[in-house]
Amino acid sequence: QSVLTQPPSVSGAPGQRVTISCTGSSSNIGAGYDVHWYQQLPGTAPKLLIYGNSNRPSGVPDRFSGSKSGTSASLAISGLQAEDEADYYCQSYDSSLSGYVFGTGTKVTVL
Amino acid sequence: QVTLKESGPVLVKPTETLTLTCTVSGFSLSNARMGVSWIRQPPGKALEWLAHIFSNDEKSYSTSLKSRLTISKDTSKSQVVLTMTNMDPVDTATYYCARTLVVAGDWFDPWGQGTLVTVSS
Fold first, then answer.
1. Where residue A1 falls among pLDDT bands split at 50, 70, 90?
2. pLDDT for B24-46, tens place per residue?
3. Of B47, B61, B105, the CB nearest to A102
4. Cβ distance B49 to B65 under 8 Å?
5. From CA B67, how far away is CA B33, in angstroms rounded?
6. Contact B105 A36 (CB under 8 A)
7. A25 exposed, middle or buried (CB, 10 Å; 0-12, 13-18, 19+)?
8. Interface test with B, best of A87, A100, A104 (most B CBs within 10 A)
9. Residue B58: which residues within 8 A CB-CB, separation 6 or more?
10. In this complex, do B48 and A34 lie within 8 Å of one another by their Cβ atoms?
11. Are residues A57 and B109, on separate chains, in Cβ contact within 8 Å?
């Protein structure tokens, strides 16, 4: 019952730039709540990638960047590397549901 | 170093109650800027937030599962417990606990390794 919509998959060649969109509504992203992003490598737990729309935790390469505008947010990966193959999820808060919400998830494939 | 670890049964029968424990280290459950959430992920599917408990013991639940969930904490033991009643095969999933940072926009970091719970007779 994800309320944040992401493309199921994106792909790119090594070195290329890819972007993942996260579309919400007026009760979550559009209401001003921050968007956070997680990376889930195969068979592992999700890991925080971006917090507060555009901030990187210590240790996350600056190839990863986030932005937010209106009712949507985006994650960009520049200089795509083989190790970036993973599932990516956005997350925010929804005032109508009074709870946290995740995106539908996007699988990134490095060609 | 902040760590969280989930524990509980790997197999439950339909209609049974699931009890999961999250044991945390490296931070206190009484810290006003932190809480603990439970999140699950059915095989091959997306993440779903279930419940959250704040340092002041305030609780919040997923609207769709609220009637089946109870979250509680024992600060002295550094443990957060989630119970889910009337389990069904569709509840088969990996269940994660994660620290929630309550700072002008709440996010989850870090996560536990997760525990796979299968619901089957």
1. low
2. 999 999 988 889 999 999 999 99
3. B47
4. no
5. 27
6. yes
7. middle
8. A100
9. none
10. no
11. yes
Cβ of B105 and A93 within 8 Å? yes
Residue A104 and residue B46: Cβ atoms within 8 Å? yes
Per-residue pLDDT reduced to its tens digit, A21-70:
999 999 999 999 999 999 999 999 999 999 999 999 999 999 999 999 99
Contact A74, A21 (CB under 8 A): yes
- Which of B37, B104, B112 shows the shortest C-beta gap to A100? B37
Residue B101 pLDDT exceeds 90: no
Nearest CA distance, B5 vs chain A (angstrom): 11
Q: Residue A82 phi/psi, 5° resolution?
A: -55, -35
